[in-house]
Amino acid sequence: KRPAGAPDRSLARPVTKVGIVGAGLMASQLALLFARRLQVPVVLTDLDQERVDKGVGYVHAEIDKLLGKGRVGPDKANRLKALVSGAVDKAEVFADADFVVEAVFEEMKIKKQVFADVEKVVSPEAVLATNTSSLSITEMAADLEHPERVVGFHFFNPVAVMPLLEIVKGEQTDDATLATAFATGKALKKTTILVKDSPSFIVNRLLGRFMGEVGKIVDEGTPLAVADGAFAGVAPMPPFFLLSLVGPAIALHNNETLHGAFPDRFYVSPNLQALVAARKTSVYLPDFSIDPE
Ligand code: CAA
């Protein structure tokens, strides 16, 4: 059955090579998923060779884990490893990519620049997908020569296990792009839903409300471990564990975006702001302390 709002699947274009911009944790998880499910070459790119090597190294280590668990055999593991490569220079490796996903830092200016660079080297039909969790797809595409090939393709952490994929249609996204996104999401074995291009889409908007409230509870004086403990057996992961998994900077960015769009409804925690300003990557630190004032 076609997901609600998805265009005719006959419009979908084949995906024979995938380019991923970024080689951080999210990007590397995506590389593994694409290689495993689509069985096509996947190239990770980043600003320098060290980042690229780290990303490819992560994917290879995850493949070894799958091998260790017996989820893939030795031949398959080797084939998967051979499918995933990395490069610093996008021009050569992206030239024949027909589906490029960006998973770089969550900032509009950077993402626009990434797509402008990628557009110079890919074919006019190549899909440009963004894993943004909160930014406008329409705005991201606005200055491109072919804004109709940009689509939101938002995964959840950990990518290997979370079933949902939010597909976001920008104002100019055309049906062939959307159909390709849905067909690819299905091939990746994700549950695909079409969501409106609005701040933080659906899941992160709901999550922002929830995380804002639990942040406020801690800011008001409840110890963090107590707030987390209150969720035992209620949620799959206590809220501050989830915040550490997602990353404090991304969680803060989400709440700031939502606060900007709906100031009356979204809370931005000063403790979380301080944690991110101190470049901490986990909330399980004394820094996330409560100011009794
Ligand atoms: N990477 C890869 N695989 C992972 C993983 C990770 N980080 N964490 C867990 N897994 C795998 C495990 O290897 C295991 O796989 P096998 O069955 O093959 O062994 C499987 O997931 C289950 O793991 P656990 O036995 O540890 O099970 P669990 O009951 O602790 O569940 C969980 C783990 C699925 C992550 C669960 O805790 C959960 O659902 N947490 C909530 C996650 C969530 O809400 N994510 C959304 C965050 S919001 C977001 O990402 C949006 C954004 O843009 C910011």
Automatic annotation (TrEMBL):
<protein>
    <submittedName>
        <fullName>3-hydroxyacyl-CoA dehydrogenase</fullName>
    </submittedName>
</protein>
<feature type="domain" description="3-hydroxyacyl-CoA dehydrogenase NAD binding">
    <location>
        <begin position="17"/>
        <end position="197"/>
    </location>
</feature>
<comment type="similarity">
    <text>Belongs to the 3-hydroxyacyl-CoA dehydrogenase family.</text>
</comment>
<feature type="domain" description="3-hydroxyacyl-CoA dehydrogenase C-terminal">
    <location>
        <begin position="201"/>
        <end position="280"/>
    </location>
</feature>
<comment type="similarity">
    <text>In the central section; belongs to the 3-hydroxyacyl-CoA dehydrogenase family.</text>
</comment>
